[in-house]
Amino acid sequence: MHYLRFIFGIIFIVILTFILYIKNQPSQYRVSRSIYTSIPAPTLYNYLNDFENWPEWNPWILEDPEMKLSFNRDNFNQPGYLWEGKDGSGSMKTLATKAPFKIEQQMTFESFPSSNVRWNIKKNSDSLEWIMEGGMIFPMKIFTLQMGSMDAMIGPYYKKGLRAIDSILTIKLNEHRFEYKDTVILPKQFYLSRSFNSDTTALDSLIKIGSQELYEFAESKNLNITGALFTITPQSEFKTSTWSIGIPIEGYFKTDHPAIKCRYSKERMALKGIHLGSLKNIKKSWEIMTEKINLMNPKLQYYPMTIYKVDKKSNPDPLAWETELLLPYR
């Protein structure tokens, strides 16, 4: 009998010591991982703020292909989703955002306390940081102690997810996306025009300068702008050529500016295509357009016209850019 009491006493002391040890573990946890990335902050923000993109990169979802996901599309300001998987069910929702640098979310898993999730997006550096913080109840302390720690359990998944985000968005930004629309009729229109004589290397900087001049002039004269900014470049094999930048306006206006003119274009036929995304590979889209018009008639005269329907001015995310390519011909 004394022997059994001694054994039970030892077991009691061991259990009590273990309970006290678990109880004295930290009541809060913080898991943080970051990765260097060249992806623009607006692209990262838009991608991460849309939960329907998460199955592409989220390591837990990728590990459980049978996971059931349902997305909340009713609340635009606080989107969310629910999941049911092999390891349990939970929910994630966005609480607050500060575009394009911060997203604050809340994750709830099973009956455990909710965790705060935060994304820090390239505000003061070129890094994307993923953070999770929360409180630890007693069952969680036991579970995480068995796994080593919350950081050891969650950290590798965070690193894997960050790398996947960078890889997927790099591919999307470099992907060539083009839609050929065939022949269209361009309506007659008046437009403000600013011409330059330069080589193609100066194109981007002069478009920025010229567009600012045109918009400021239109605003100063209270002119109604009726369309998107565009450029017209001639067919030329020379390194330097004269090209123009323009913005459509409602009607004729006699300008008093030495470099800005009001011009008129007649109704005309044109081949049309739409280049989607970054402009770094727009040359491929123009090659397709040129091939199309040469197949139609290699003797046609045309002036390539680029219309920046959605550009950096209207949306800083390159994935959202939409550029209309036109080949007016006669």
Give the helices and strands, then pairings.
Elements: H1 2-23, E1 28-36, H2 41-48, H3 59-63, E2 68-72, E3 80-85, E4 88-98, E5 102-109, E6 115-121, E7 127-135, H4 138-147, H5 150-174, E8 177-186, E9 189-199, H6 203-220, E10 230-232, E11 240-249, E12 260-265, E13 268-276, H7 282-296, E14 305-310, E15 322-329
Antiparallel strand pairs: 1-7, 2-3, 3-4, 4-5, 5-6, 6-7, 8-13, 9-11, 9-12, 10-11, 10-14, 13-15, 14-15
Structure at a glance:
With 330 residues, the chain is α+β, with helices and mostly antiparallel strands. The chain has helices at residues 2-23, 41-48, 59-63, 138-147, 150-174, 203-220, 282-296; strands at residues 28-36, 68-72, 80-85, 88-98, 102-109, 115-121, 127-135, 177-186, 189-199, 230-232, 240-249, 260-265, 268-276, 305-310, 322-329.
Structural features, described:
With 330 residues, the protein is of the alpha+beta class. The chain has two domains: 24-174, START domain (Alpha-D-Glucose-1,6-Bisphosphate, Chain A, domain 4, 2-Layer Sandwich), CATH 3.30.530; 177-329, Alpha-Beta Barrel (Multidrug-efflux Transporter 1 Regulator Bmrr, Chain A), CATH 3.20.80.10. The protein has seven helices and 15 strands. A hairpin with a 3-residue loop joins β4 (88-98) and β5 (102-109). The longest helix has 25 residues, at 150-174. It is elongated, with a radius of gyration of 30 Å. The termini are far apart.
